[in-house]
Amino acid sequence: MFEYAPAPESVRPQIKEHYGLFIDGEFVDAESDFKSVNPATEEVLFTVAEADEADVAKAVAAARRAYETVWGPMSGTERGKYLFRIARLLQERAREFAVAESLDNGKPIKETRDFDVPTAAQHFFYHAGWADKLAYAGHGPDPRPLGVVGQVIPWNFPLLMLAWKIAPALACGNTVVLKPAETTPLTALMFAELCQEADLPPGVVNILPGAGAAGAAVVDSAVDKVAFTGSTAVGRAIAKAVAGSEKKVTLELGGKAANIVFDDAPIDQAVEGIVNGIFFNQGHVCCAGSRLLVQESVADDVLERLKERVATLRVGDPLDKNTDIGAINSAAQLERITALTEAGRGEGADVWQPACDLPEQGFWFRPTVFTGVQQSMRIAQEEIFGPVLSVLTFRTPDEAIAKANNTPYGLSAGVWTEKGSKILWAAERLRAGVVWANTFNRFDAASPFGGLKESGYGREGGRQGLEAYLDV
Ligand code: NAP
Ligand code: MG
To answer: What pLDDT score was predicted for residue 453?
Structure first.
């Protein structure tokens, strides 16, 4: 294998030493602060104000004012212009946002530069186009916004999850109060600066950094709707908290997707899809293909080629353009991944990891492949949310579907076969919101995304995703 020379990214974003809460168009201080660290080095990047209940109430009041006096009455055409402006500004500052995201989150620059930031911009462009065409979206002739929306997002795609939440909400005429994840507030705060630059009316977007308590305060506040992306445990708590109130809620939760490889699949292509399915974004992906189901007759061949390919993945400095796998986002997440991997060993699965050096500072985990996995094992049932693949085998297509559906989750699935009829047959039977065929982890603003069962309810993206932000 060729060795690569380091190719460090040279752009450095302007990161402030301290950020406030973004309420009513201004950055304001709070009673307490917390730190955000770079998980690849454990260095503190900046300090940031932490929102409490009173701050949430102020932000919701500002959002309410903006909704009633400016944003709600504004025509869709005018709202669209603001969204186009935000999308263009995001594109102009794309490299800066990409580097900031890699610093705060630990994910490789290759991914933030080529996926996170362009896809976030795409969501604003896409929804800007809907703002004046809502009457044609299939949700009635004159669909109305809901009002003020409280949004809580996770750390795995900080800017992209913000875009998935804010773009449709604003396009439909709502105003928002958003809480980014505790470990990754940076790009949300830079987005707040971008809202100022775009002259977005004050109060339309409010950004409140904080931990779980701030998220709970947003859920409990006087918002008209709660939109949440995160774990199933917190999603369940939110559903309980809003039950019996007038608040609408959408939940995008966890997953344990099956990636099914039939014996007639193009093997090399499938191996690329398996690698992308589980090692993209360190496996911190709700729809990750974390369970590989491979037909017994081709299992040895697939596994051999898979290990060969995984051994070429480069783990290390997120800001090196050659890096495939960056840092694990936090010490807590590294602990969870380590504990579940230990459980897999303890339950008797065979573990394989490539030999690779890991940096001394920061949070790192080697790409890991478990074989000999039984359906009852924790590594086959629980979401690991890390670079860990569990491999199971099957003999018949019916067995593949039965095993794939044997999970409380239902977010996504993948099917690899050369036969179109088999793809359609499988897609019909898989209990998953998204099914990819001969590809994996593909996203588009025009395509709805969301889960079944314990993966949540509601859709994001596409015409269907608008429904979550309209009073229909
Ligand atoms: P999490 O613990 O549920 O956190 C998600 C967000 O909720 C964070 O902002 C968190 O704040 C906040 N939060 C924590 N406790 C809360 C409470 N009681 N009330 C309100 N908000 C609260 O999830 P995570 O571990 O950060 O993220 C990983 C999970 O998200 C995985 O299960 C993954 O599958 C899921 N996910 C799903 C999708 C999807 O589209 N379906 C996309 C991405 C991720 P803190 O930052 O302080 O914890
Ligand atoms: Mg951080």
So the answer is: 97
> In terms of domains, do 408 and 264 share one?
yes
Residues 273 and 181 placed together within one structural domain of the fold: no
Q: Is residue 172 part of a domain?
A: yes
Considering 9, 252, 382, 460, which one is annotated as catalytic? 252
Q: Which domain covers residue 169, as residue numbers? A: 18-253+455-471
Q: What CATH number has the domain bearing residue 225?
A: 3.40.605.10
User: For the chain, what is the mean pLDDT?
Assistant: 97
The amino acid occupying position 389 is: L
Answer whether 0.90 is exceeded by the pTM: yes
For residue 272, what pLDDT is reported? 98
Q: What is the bridge-based pairing of β-strands 368-371 and 388-394? A: parallel
Q: Give the pLDDT of residue 123.
A: 98
Q: Are residues 426 and 461 in the same domain?
A: no
Close Cβ partners of 83 (under 8 Å, ≥ 6 residues apart): 124, 125, 127, 128, 131, 167, 170, 171
Same domain, 245 and 288: no
Mean pLDDT of 307-334: 97
Pocket probe mutation, ligand 1, options 286, 330, 336, 460, max atoms within 8 Å of Cβ:
286
Question: Is residue 246 annotated as part of the catalytic site, yes or no?
Answer: no
Report the CATH number that the domain containing residue 287 is assigned in CATH: 3.40.309.10
The answer to whether residue 442 sits within a structural domain is no
Residue 2 pLDDT grade (very low, low, confident, very high; cuts 50, 70, 90): low
Q: What residues does ligand 1 touch, defined as CB less than 6 Å away? A: 152-156, 179, 181-182, 211-212, 215-216, 219, 229-231, 234, 237-238, 252-255, 286, 383, 385, 411, 451, 456
How much distance in Å is there from the Cα of 37 to the middle of ligand 2?
4
Atom of ligand 1 nearest to the CA of 155: 26
State which of 229, 441, 452, 457 you would mutate to test the pocket of ligand 1, scoring each by most atoms of that ligand within 8 A of its C-beta: 229
Identity of the amino acid at 369: V
Structure confidence at residue 218 as a pLDDT band (50, 70, 90): very high
Cβ 286 vs Cβ 156: under 8 Å: yes
Radius of gyration of the chain (CA): 22
